[in-house]
Amino acid sequence: MKIKEFLATCKRAFNMARGGVYTEKELKKMCFKSLGKDVLISRLCTILKPADISIGNNSRVDAYVLVSGKVTIGSYCHIASHCRICGGQAGIVFEDFSGVSSLCGIFAVSDDYSGNNLAGPAVQKEFVKRTEKEVIFKSFSMAGANCIVFPGVIIETGTAIGAGTVVRKPTKSGCIYLGNPAKIVGRTQQGYIEKYKKFLSEHQNL
Ligand SMILES: CC(C)(COP(=O)(O)OP(=O)(O)OC[C@H]1O[C@@H](n2cnc3c(N)ncnc32)[C@H](O)[C@@H]1OP(=O)(O)O)[C@@H](O)C(=O)NCCC(=O)NCCS
């Protein structure tokens, strides 16, 4: 066993020994749509219907996260504590190496708040105007703490969303967004591309 693999195994054992995450056996019993290897899911998070949720390898879902509806989480993704990931029927996709920091709300479904309709899941569908559109976090994109992302938003590759930002429209690749509504305030560095190449040379697969 290579030293790096050994260290990764130690790290995983350490995390499990802390008692905060489900064991591999427990995760299998939960019957996810699909489940990769070395996934760390806090016992304190709420996953409403694992059969609608796919998770790749080495991803992590922290305490007090709520995951509902259709959600696909790739490999090496991180959903930090207290996030609400509400996929509905349209779904939310986190591609490999994407992530959201604590307290984010990511919504693929939302009702009309204009006043022209009734709203909320307790009301029959014919009285409600509901928007359901897929949300995608492309690879190497991330959102800082306390961001809100609306239905239909594509967070492009390498986008950084600053803390406290409200994103209502698709982003441009490699840009930094801030504020409400989100505006471009700069460009991200591209160093991650070299790091990713190095990562791939050291890891057989994702
Ligand atoms: C948006 C962000 C990526 C910008 O980082 P940066 O390029 O290093 O920018 P700086 O820290 O130099 O700040 C640049 C300017 O933007 C402002 N700014 C930075 N982040 C901001 C935010 N989230 N909201 C509002 N203004 C912000 C700064 O005050 C500064 O303004 P000034 O030039 O008038 O002083 C970063 O500030 C951020 O929000 N990161 C997310 C961190 C996070 O949520 N971590 C969670 C734990 S992992």
Summarize the structure.
The chain is α/β, with parallel strands linked by helices and 206 residues long.
What does the model show?
The protein is of the alpha/beta class. The protein has one domain (15-202): Hexapeptide repeat proteins (UDP N-Acetylglucosamine Acyltransferase, domain 1), CATH 2.160.10.10. 16% of the residues lie in helices and 28% in strands. The chain has helices spanning 3-17, 24-29, 191-202, and strands at 34-35, 40-41, 46-47, 53-55, 60-61, 66-68, 71-73, 78-79, 84-86, 92-94, 99-100, 105-107, 109-111, 130-132, 135-137, 142-143, 148-149, 154-155, 160-161, 166-167, 175-178, 183-187. An eight-stranded mixed β-sheet has the order 2-5-8-11-16-19-21-22, with helices on one face. It has a six-stranded parallel β-sheet with strand order 1-4-7-10-15-18, with no helix packed on it. Strands 3-6-9-12-17-20 form a six-stranded parallel β-sheet, with no helix packed on it. The two termini are 18 Å apart. The mean pLDDT is 94. The site of coenzyme A has 10 residues, from strand 21.
Blueprint (SSEs and pairs):
Blueprint: H1 3-17, H2 24-29, E1 34-35, E2 40-41, E3 46-47, E4 53-55, E5 60-61, E6 66-68, E7 71-73, E8 78-79, E9 84-86, E10 92-94, E11 99-100, E12 105-107, E13 109-111, E14 130-132, E15 135-137, E16 142-143, E17 148-149, E18 154-155, E19 160-161, E20 166-167, E21 175-178, E22 183-187, H3 191-202
The protein binds coenzyme A.
